[in-house]
Specification:
With 67 residues, this protein is mainly α. It has 4 helices and 2 strands; from the N terminus they run αβααβα. It has one domain. Strands 1-2 form a two-stranded parallel sheet. The two termini are 15 Å apart.
Length: 67
């Protein structure tokens, strides 16, 4: 899981202020990370995009507690 470490650390820094009220969290692979219209598609609520490139279910579980 170490190959995702830097990207996940960047997500932690970027969204550290969102922890209290993140809205709907989208978490997963590059399908989530590259969803450029996520804010527009869910403009009725707050969303937080925590996708990281190429992640697997095992990687998502590995990093879930840190995010």
């Amino acid at each position: 899981m170490y190959w995702y470490e830097e990207e996940v650390k960047q997500l932690e820094r970027k969204h550290r202020l969102d922890r209290e009220h993140p809205g709907i969290i989208f978490y997963g692979s590059s399908s989530i990370r590259l969803w450029n219209s996520l804010d527009d598609d869910f403009d009725f609520t707050r969303v937080t995009n925590l996708g990281f490139g190429g992640s697997t279910l095992a990687a998502c579980v590995w990093f879930l507690k840190g995010l």
